[in-house]
Amino acid sequence: MPITADLLAIMPFPDIDPIAFSIGPLAIHWYGLAYVAGILLGWAYARRLAANESLWPVNVSPISRTQLDDFIVWAALGVVLGGRLGYIFFYDLPAVLRSPVRALEIWNGGMSFHGGLTGTTIAMILFARRNAIPIWSLFDIVATVVPFGLFFGRIANFINGELWGRLTDVPWAVVFPTGGPFARHPSQLYEAGLEGIVLLLVLAALVYGMRALKSPGFITGVFVCGYALSRIFVEFFREPDAQLGYLLGTNWLTMGMVLSSPMILLGLWAMLRARRQAALQL
Fold first, then answer.
1. What Enzyme Commission number(s) does the record list for this chain (predicted)?
2. What is the pLDDT of residues 207-252, one digit of tens each?
3. Beta partners for 11?
């Protein structure tokens, strides 16, 4: 039976304007500011990691701060282009084929993490080859800072009242303006906590406590695996995209689960590979 706000004392949605502020006719959205905040904080953290020689193999940083400054442009393009293209191909292709201009309407659906990850990976490979940087170490430094972007991105999703969760009667349920008069899981906040805060702290503990960056590829594997497990878990509380619904006639399987499942195997492979390479060098 649907749970409505009239039946339970549910937390009201904090009515925050998606537009943070305006400069004349230019409207600055929280969603855009979230991307800027994630990229800038990630960049600042990456510069600290690059400057700490003791964290890296043979106590030599594989990348300079100047190279990181150059890479931020590549990363931003990879995230935005890959994220938008990923959403189109994975979630919204029929609608875009009917109306190609929809591809430019970033407010219709937004971005896909899996697409952004693919775009950033391509950017990293090209940048590493061009600048003679060890590819796995570049993967690691980017993986360490990505949770900043994930955290702010999910908070922006919550502010926009999008990507909300399934119906529920938990005390912290929220009635979203765009989700009908129903109490729903604030699944955006679950993702912000798991993919952002928890994953950031786990990776930081491995970097500083276990010197995991000395085994190139290990941090990348932990991030990929950790993100996939977090995303699959939260998908059980998140409403699937309306245009796709549940897959294969089930009432639980979603596109997010399908795209994340291979990442677990990929992450485990990266961790095992890193450990084998480290053992060979002993």
1. 2.5.1.145
2. 999 999 999 999 999 999 999 999 999 999 999 988 788 998 888 9
3. 174
- Residue 235 backbone class (left: φ over 0; alpha: ψ -120 to 50; beta: rest): alpha
Say which residues have a Cβ less than 8 Å from residue 44's Cβ, sequence separation at least 6.
none
Alpha helix positions (H), the chain? 30-51, 65-91, 93-98, 113-131, 135-160, 187-191, 199-209, 218-235, 255-280
- Would you state the torsion angle of the CA atoms of residues 50, 55, 57, 63, taken in this order, to the nearest 10 degrees? 0
Percent of the chain beyond pLDDT 70? Answer: 94
What distance in Å separates the CA atoms of residue 149 and residue 39, rounded to the nearest whole number? 6
Separation CA 268–CA 76 (nearest Å): 27
Residues 6+ apart with CB under 8 A from 25: none
pLDDT at 167: 94
The rounded distance, in Å, linking the Cα atoms of 56 and 141 is 10
Q: Is 154 annotated as a binding residue?
A: yes
What pLDDT digit, counting tens, does each position of 90-144 carry?
A: 777 777 778 777 776 665 666 788 888 899 999 999 999 999 999 999 999 999 9
Cα dist. 87→25, 83, 235, 255 in Å?
A: 28, 6, 16, 11
pTM, entire model: 0.87
Comparing 222 with 19, which gets the higher pLDDT? 222
Which residues contact residue 195 at a Cβ distance below 8 angstroms, ignoring those fewer than 6 apart? Answer: 147, 150, 151, 154, 227, 230, 231, 234
